[in-house]
Design goal:
single chain, alpha/beta, globular, 11 helices, TIM Barrel, 15% strand
């Protein structure tokens, strides 16, 4: 067992949010310092619409590094890309504590954080202080809870982070900001993407090649999936979708003490639902937009399931709570073994033909 694995077990003794802050501080001070390793070249992939070139398809989802404090360290653990945020224009304390709960028996997490973050000013300062050569870093932007014009918040976020990240994500799917998911409704989404698209074109005229993704919820019916897909496909500037955020559903299989807490559920119980939603989007979109699969990933087989459902890359976060930061290296080793077993020369071979 590695030092990182031992540390992961020790940190779980702490309350969930305290443990998270302890982990961030440890990474910042160098107490947990990974040694970077080169990836097997067969893990490299290029997203089709955006052209984003990834050394491996496994990304760290937004939520872990909310304030862009440790993205370089997490890249060194072996992630192919790291997404920071969600960041809002103004600093925001989020919802009252406790607001983060481990469901250990279910390998799951419930959070109702509420976009707690330091605001765009510090976020941009931290992003801009690290050379772009560190790796692929995404910026996930959101809206303040008390904003009079939430779409204006997204526009402000896009303009602020654009020069300092590799790609951007528009997060309209958190269940923890009242009314936010209403931006997924067709009319609201058209207005949002119209105004954000204008900002993206304006910024692209000065700084090229910043793909923009839209992060959506798993709690969508067939009509909502079709509507979102059609609106997204109509935006020539939009690179793709991240499917998906946390769910407000509570499967009957949950057994942990905190299973009834309000908030978004992530981790293993989200795997099946989020993958089903991903496949539904791929059935409509195909490869006309890039699809990044998120929700419930904890193993190489989970990654392969997302790829087979149409994802070109994936993101994880909650599994780190239970398996530690070396999980990504174990997953990559198992992916290489799976390719060897099937005689595959590229990770892309797991995707639909």
């Amino acid at each position: 067992m590695s030092l990182f694995d031992l540390a992961t077990g020790a940190v779980r003794i702490l309350p969930a949010e305290t443990a998270h802050r302890f982990t961030i501080n440890g990474l910042k001070t160098g107490l947990a310092k990974p040694t970077p390793e080169l990836d097997d070249p067969r893990l490299a992939t290029t997203l089709k619409k955006s052209g984003l070139k990834l050394p491996n398809p496994i990304g760290l989802a937004a939520g872990f590094d909310k304030n862009a404090e440790v993205f370089a360290q997490m890249l060194a653990f072996g992630f192919g890309f790291v997404e920071c945020g969600t960041v809002t224009p103004r600093p925001q304390v989020g919802n009252p504590r406790p607001r983060l709960f481990r469901l250990s028996d279910d390998q799951a997490v419930i959070n109702r954080m509420g976009f707690n973050n330091d605001g765009l000013g510090l976020y941009v300062r931290r992003l801009s202080a690290v050379p772009r050569t560190v790796g692929i870093v995404g910026a996930n932007v959101g809206a303040n809870k008390d904003s009079d014009d939430r779409i204006a918040d997204y526009v402000a976020g896009v303009k602020a982070v654009w020069p300092y990240c590799t790609y951007l994500t528009i997060n309209i799917s958190s269940p923890n900001t009242p009314g936010l998911r209403g931006l997924q409704d067709r009319g609201a989404l058209e207005e949002l993407l119209g105004r954000v698209g204008a900002a993206a074109r304006e910024m692209d005229a000065a700084v090229k090649n910043r793909p923009v993704f839209l992060k959506i919820a798993p709690d969508l019916d067939d009509k909502a999936i079709t509507d979102i897909a059609e609106v997204a496909l109509a935006q020539d500037w939009l690179a793709g979708l991240i499917v998906s955020n946390t769910t407000i559903d509570r499967p009957e299989t949950l057994t942990s003490q905190h299973k009834g807490e309000t908030g978004g559920l992530s981790g293993a119980p989200l795997m099946e639902k989020s993958t089903r939603t991903l496949a539904a989007f791929h059935a409509v979109i195909g490869d006309r937009l890039d699809l990044i699969g998120a929700g419930g990933i904890a193993s190489a087989q989970d990654v392969i399931a997302k790829l087979r459902a149409g994802a070109q890359a994936v993101q994880l976060y909650s599994a780190l709570v239970f398996h530690g930061p070396l999980l990504v290296r174990r997953i990559k080793a198992d992916l290489v073994a799976a390719m060897d077993a099937e005689g595959l020369t590229s990770i892309e071979a797991f995707r639909p033909a």
